[in-house]
Amino acid sequence: MTVQSRKSPPTHPGYLVFNSKEIKENPLNFYNRMWKEYGDLVRLPIMPNYSIYLLAHPSYAEHVLSTHQELYAKPDIVNKPFNLMMGESILTSEGDFWLKHRRLMQPAFHMKQLAKLADVMVSCTESFLQEWEKKPDGEVIDIAEETLRLTLKIAGQTLFSKDISDEDSVLGQAFRTGYEFINYKMNNLWTEPLWIPTSRNQGFRQAKQTLDKLVLDIINSRRQNPQNRQDLLSMLMSAQDEETGERMSDKQLLSEAITLLVAGHETVASGLAWTWYLLAENPNIIEQLQSELRRVLNGSNPSFEKLPQLEYTRRVFDETLRLYPPAWAMPRTSKQDDQIQGYLIPKNSLITVAAFMIHRHPEFWENPDQFNPDNFLPEKVNQKPNFAYFPFGGGKRICIGKSFALMEATIIIALISQRFKLELLPNQNIEIDPTFTLRPKNGIKVKLWKRN
Ligand code: HEM
Hints:
Bound molecules: protoporphyrin IX containing FE
Number of domains: 1
Distance between the termini: 65 Å
Strand order of the largest sheet: 1-2-8-5-3
Mean pLDDT: 92
Oligomer: single chain
């Protein structure tokens, strides 16, 4: 493509290397400030000849993630920390490798397969809530920590049929150490290279060795005793390339299994933690939610068949992901010169597709900061342009776990709301931690009450 425009968009004066404290401390606040000051397409020079382009308009998001996606790739600064934990996988690869893996893995996420996992999600949540039942009324819990524990439990059971959320689970401990390490790598501009024997690096190496060994043991034992298990790992093990008949090697299975744990647990947990924060602040919405749950479930558990009727419950989660999208900024690098809205985007620039800002863009959302699940009534959704809402990304790299996540969240919201009332503890400093996902920085403390 020949790019004629040399026109540069509104640009922040000075280089970001000299502002790194503000960006490091709170990139979300910084980007928000840039958006408000400069508009929907801003150039943020990092150093000479290297800039971030902040995109905060649905049509720019559509350009990068969908219509011109072949001109953009996921950047190394994001891929490298992930690859330390899981090796090359669907999340971080490009080209033929990515396509091959996406084709192999996609069938495991089809509705027909997911239907088999709904009961697992229900029974995991039930056994988790049995612990809550034992707590005295009014006990304070951190709902952000709790949802993380619950989604890790569900991730382990749906993937390997194992509970890795248990404090005693060696696999769970190794996973959590590895996960904290990649979070640290992603959130710090400079970190010690892995070959330096710091205690953090050594801890990671050890955890990674343990994790790989335990997951490979599971894969081996399944190869030796092939039973028809209904979990994602068995689906991945039996997946076959339609053209070549090829299956995934043990190494590939290992990488993809760890990828699904990484990509699939904190994202859902963080969305759910904000759901309870928003619900606790909006009692009228809790009323409508309760009335739907009574009408559709009448005290019974949610099931795969009932999910389409839980429309309001689903809208509550959709709206939470609008206000607090776990993947709040989707990073890309430009593979060649491009042009957006007449502005030059030079090759090798860093692109931030700002879902957080687009989801609150006043041109596309009425009262953008207000929690209103009715924003997702079908008639309202139909009026919105593409990419006014895209918590799961878009184009060919759209989240493979989207239906899994929506099913899981709807089930969890229904089961918790049927059994418990969560009351926000007053005077808390609720802050967003804009790291890998958009989790609450100091947690969210709530009092737990059983419903009769
Ligand atoms: C609310 C929960 C979730 C959110 C908001 C979310 C969001 C996203 C987004 C935005 C992307 C695309 C990133 C980009 O283009 O830069 C993505 C990709 C991905 N997600 Fe999710 N996700 C969620 C849950 C899950 C779950 C439950 C799984 C697996 C069980 C999963 C697995 C993946 C994988 C493997 C990819 C990479 C797909 C590819 O590149 O082909 N996600 N997710």
